[in-house]
Specification:
Mean pLDDT: 96
Low-confidence stretches: none
Shape: globular
Radius of gyration: 13 Å
Order of helices and strands: EEEEEEEEEEE
Length: 123
């Protein structure tokens, strides 16, 4: 059984930083991608950043230069370092793990998801 868990969300002021963590278990493939998505109220879920088991990273244009994804030493662990946060970054952030066919940041590519962690950027 695949399980995904996110942590690290919280309230941060505009311009601040936050690091999210994702741990997955039970996904026993050599090649995989761990991806962060976010969904704000009234908006569709969008891909933010992903990293493959080989270390290739993917970023949405809206976060390039501000967010950095990395892998942990433990298998199936990933971190999202978010800097220069903006109010528009406020959302529920989800982590997913899987193998994509065409678009690594498309929600439909992934079957296994966590419950999400809330990030609120506000003064």
């Amino acid at each position: 059984q695949v399980q995904v868990a996110e942590s690290g969300g919280g309230l941060v002021q505009p311009g601040g930083s936050l690091t999210l963590s994702c741990e997955a278990s039970g996904f026993n493939y050599e090649y995989y991608v761990m991806v962060w998505f976010r969904q704000a109220p009234g908006k569709v879920r969008e891909g933010v950043s992903g990293i493959s088991s080989e270390g290739k990273s993917y970023y949405a244009d809206s976060v390039k230069g501000r967010f950095t994804i990395s892998r942990g030493n433990a298998k199936n662990t990933a971190y999202l370092r978010m800097e220069r946060l903006e109010r528009e970054d406020t959302a529920l952030y989800y982590c997913a793990i899987g193998r994509f066919e065409s678009d690594p940041l498309a929600p439909g590519e992934y079957q296994f998801w966590g419950q999400g962690t809330q990030v609120t950027v506000s003064s």
